Amino acid sequence: MKQRNIWALPVALGAGALAAVGLALGSGSGKSEYVASAVANPLYKEECGSCHLAYSPALLPAPSWGRIMDGLDDHFGEDAELDAATATQIRTYLGDNAADSKRGKRAVKIAHAATNEDAPLRITETAYFLRKHDEVPQRLVFDNPEVGGFSQCDSCHRGADAGRFDEDDVNIPGYGRWDD
Q1: CA 20 to 30 Å from 11, out of 89, 101, 132, 150?
Q2: Which range of residues forms the domain containing residue 171?
Q3: Are residues 108 and 139 in the same domain?
Q4: Cβ distance 106 to 35 under 8 Å?
Q5: Angle between helices 84-96 and 42-49 (to 10 degrees)
Q6: pLDDT of residue 24
């Protein structure tokens, strides 16, 4: 009588499930390109998302988030200061979920910042962002009253709040679907 391996089916099913999750999270070969995870911290979403898109922490390295949190008194021309307890909680969330705390090729590409002093303050200053947007004409963004600037990710990337930035789903207001 042939002996059966009772673990073969569960192991095969588990491997298949992990492969499917990898595709859904943007391994590069799936339809949906999840560059970053959706914001999972209600305090961060409430405090920062009340003025702009609550950007996924995975879009910048921890030194960048630290510099941003250190400069909330002049946050891109606005006073965004928080009480100490709130600032500490948000700083911890951002650092724990920053690009350099994640694994994967996109996280490594996004996290490419050498030191605290030269860590970018803006997602739009990262080499990854610049490379991904190098063919988009400035007029479609800055001269477009429905967009206004590259920092308005959710204007063109309808799934930005979920961390989805699939170039096949880019729809520039007043222009339409973008295809480079």
Answers
A1: 101
A2: 133-180
A3: no
A4: yes
A5: 110
A6: 38
Cβ atoms of residues 120 and 127 within 8 Å: no
Taking 70 as the pLDDT cut, the residues of the chain under it are 1-35, 103-105, 113-117, 180
Tokens 């898109």, located at residue? 53
Q: Which residue has the tokens 């200061």?
A: 81
| Cα 15 to Cα 90: distance, rounded to the nearest angstrom | 35
Could you say which of 118, 150, 168 is where a domain stops?
Answer: 118
At 104 the pLDDT is 67
Q: Classify residue 71: in a domain, yes or no.
A: yes
In a domain, 162, yes or no: yes
The CA distances from residue 179 to 98, 116, 137, 175, in Å, are 29, 35, 12, 11
| Same domain? 103 vs 172 | no
Closest by CA to 126, choosing from 63, 32, 33, is 63
Interacting residues of 122 by C-beta distance below 8 A, sequence separation 6+: 151
- 3-state SS class at 157: strand
DSSP state of 88: H
Handedness of CA 15, 20, 23, 29 (dihedral sign): positive
Tokens of 138: 């400035």
Q: What is the pLDDT of residue 16?
A: 40
